[in-house]
Amino acid sequence: MKNIYELLLIILFILFTNSIFSQVTIVDAVAVDGDSDGYYGTIEIQFSTNIDDSDVETSAITDAEWIFSLDPFFADTIYAETFGSTVSYIKPSDTGNNDEYIRLTFSTIQFQSSNGPIYVRYTNSNADAITAQSTADTLYSFNVYEIRDLAPPEIDTVMSDANTIDTLIVGETITFTVDFNDSIPDPYLTIYPTQYNGRDLNWSTSNAGDTYKGTYTVTEGDNDQFPPLQLTGVYAKDSDGNTSKFLFNGSDVLKSIDAHTPVINSVTSNQTSADTLIVGQSITFTVDIATPDPDLTITPLSYNGRNLGWTPVVGGDSYEGNYLVTNGDQDRTIPLQLTGVKATDPAGNVSNTKDGTDVAVAIDANKPVINSVLSNATGVDTLIVGQSIIFTVDVATSDPTLEVTPTEYNNRFLGWYTSDGGSTYKGVYTVTEND
What we know:
The chain has one helix and 34 strands.
């Protein structure tokens, strides 16, 4: 890959030898694309003091004491083709000779198998030591030095796991993955933007910088997003301050966002006075919604076994459901409340739960059934004053509280009564003078 020199997890250490002289050290070193060929094969080095350029020319380029490699274990070595005292990256426009800055350039062909980083190992043999210009100070031996690069991280792809059509609701997530077009991963990158839809992505790597992941969690009150919101303007910055040359725009987010959960203010009914509802009478329930929404689903869908048929009122400001007492429904001697009421929006956000508490009516939903009406006047005869007819009403389900009608026969009160717990009712007509 052309963009190289990500900082490896190689511990940088310098092994110093004893010397009677003061030490010359490398203050900084950078690898740059000095000839604009896309390969970072130019090195600029800053020493702690002015050094003798002739030492660098002879030692650094031709002597085995000053070794460069693309391998941190120095299995192979590369050699600089040209030396120069003019630098323009590690310090802008420095042209001095025998100062603390030098420039070495390597040929592109040496980078065909690997693009870097470049590692340096130096052994001070005292024969061809790198020395200060005005003193006898020398550069001490060191085992390995990883040259800092000025290669910007290059993003290859930005992808998400929200690549199927759907709507995310509160608590659900999108994970973004940034992959890089670099041969050597960098675990110290900073990824931008740091937020998506107003929430921190908290970018991190779990594979030593090969990829970076950031996760957005839909939080109540976030901006709803339809059409889907893409992650755009993505770039990376390395620990040396190198920033991606180009902004990368993601394009695969197909999930919209609904970050507003419906809220129920109250559940009320129109039956708040003590009474008993019978077949054909009804209760109307009203669910008050904090933020109007005409597309909510209200649950439970039924009350006492009957569909409530919830409908929005005033654009979804509230919802009404109606229960009609139907013959055969379960009787309720204690008022039945509508409880566990929830509202769900089309995306799947589920509201708080509210219980109704104001139903004050009982329910009697079972009409009495008469099996037969019989009398004891079944023979052909004529009744005279003082004689009587007894009527017997046989009831399918015993109920000692029934009222039987009509209450009169031939304009005389029948006085219906039960003597068997409501299984049958009897009424007596007595022939009276002038009936």
